[in-house]
Fold these 2 entries.
Entry 1:
Amino acid sequence: MGKVADLEYAKLMGPKTTHELRTGTLEYMACEVEAQEYLFIGHDLIIPYGTTFEPPFRFNPLHDMESIWWIPTWVLYYHVDQDGSQVSTGQSTWFNKLFPGRLNSRFPPFSTRMVFRVLPTSFHRAAHEFETMHQKLIVAYTNSEKEIPPAEEPAYSKPLENLHSLFDKCFASAVEHSRDVSFFRPTVKHAHQEDSSLETRDNKQPKV
């Protein structure tokens, strides 16, 4: 049993809730939090000439769900299943797309389908479960933001309800099918980092 908690910036959610700081580990940060804007507003939205529409960005629970998803995704794309082995070229390419180590670079690969056939075969079943979570998360974002405008913030409550049970089911299945799978660090480091310890804060303030 594991728990993820980082409560120093916890606050009561409400209609005027904002997320003033871009905080946390970059690799696990929701793309919208990273960009500080909504990224799934309808592409067919037409803004009349002479008007502007810039809804204030607010953190919401879907961002927490996305952060949870990034953690096992990092585990699968970073590791190999044989001690002393190296990642394939395809796995390395996808790892660096998903985790480039710089701000505002992860949304393009996040908004498409993950290619998990580049991973070790023993990872495939778990990767399938996490890809299911990924696609449903994108649907949840899209549905929650389809009423912007005229709404100024996502209607996330209903999409969030469906995600909770799906994530529980997919995590349980991934664990069940990974009981005999081993994870090892690759013998050659990935291009930009040794591990996922990179953290970011606005104005590059250190975590204290």
Entry 2:
Amino acid sequence: MSSSSEFRDITREAGGPDDRKLKEWEQILVGKRFVEGDVAEASEEATFTRELLPHPSRVCKPGGLFTMDYNTERLNVHLDGNNKCTHVTLG
């Protein structure tokens, strides 16, 4: 029987596939303002809508409620009080 220490989750290692995916989304979203459903307003370069986000994803607003289930494929987009993306996480 193998011990669990013999197995590595390479997707969580620095430079692994998830790390690269996260860095790409950070470059796309951080500093941009999230616009809920207003496509005309979202035409500005410094904005984004839910349609841009991959599936699965969720937008985390300050003080918002969301489930604590962990999904390694889900992109979490964290916003500040002005709906600007501050950072992204997977989970």
